[in-house]
Amino acid sequence: MADIRWTASLIEERMVEAADTLKRLPEERIRGYFSTWPPVIRDYWEAFGREDVRLRRGPPSPAAIDRMDEALAWLAWLGPAEAKIVWLRASGERWKTVCWKVGMARSAAHEYWLYALCVIAWRLNGRVVRSRWSRRQLVAMTRAAQS
Predict the structure, then answer these.
(1) What's the pLDDT band for 111 if we cut at 50, 70, 90?
(2) Phi-psi region of 126 (alpha: psi -120 to 50; beta: other; left: phi over 0)
(3) How far apart are the first and last CA of the chain?
(4) Phi, psi of 128 (to 5 degrees)
């Protein structure tokens, strides 16, 4: 992976893929729980509209799970608020919901999100993020490095 030049948009795509992969994993089941009663088989007119149909895509590939694990480890490089914003956006939440959950204005949440993507890209490209750099300074340096 050393030949990939990471950008904020690539990080965003990988996070979206990780959230999608996590949703597609099989759900957890309680071990040891079973019923000795036979299943109740209902006729069509009895069961119509009783439960919503729940369709799931197939399970993710092992490579997708490996990429998800890698992307989830990147969130450890961020602060709690930044990681939460990145994950909520990757999960498909709207900005209004994200702002409500983290308690920030839209512009501040977007700035934190963009900064977090730049921090991950910066670190994956083998650079050190200095603590004295401001958020805007790092975003500007990342954009300049991409062009």
Answers:
(1) very high
(2) left
(3) 20
(4) -100, 135
pTM score above 0.85: no
Collapsed DSSP state (helix, strand, coil) of residue 12: helix
Tell me the C-alpha distance between 42 and 16, whole Å. 40
Dist. CA 116–CA 138, nearest whole Å: 10
Instruction: Judge whether residue 98 has pLDDT over 80.
Output: yes
DSSP string, 25-80: SPPP--TT----SPPPPPPHHHHTTSS-----PPPPPHHHHHHHHHHHHHGGGS-H
The reported pLDDT for the residue numbered 50 is 62
Q: What share of the chain is helix, strand, coil (3-state, %, to 5)?
A: 60, 0, 40
**26-48 pLDDT tens trace:** 877 777 777 788 777 767 666 66
- What CA–CA distance (Å, rounded) separates 99 from 105? 6
Short-list 11, 6, 15, 9, CA closest to 90:
15
Task: Copy the structure tokens of residue 69.
Answer: 């694990």
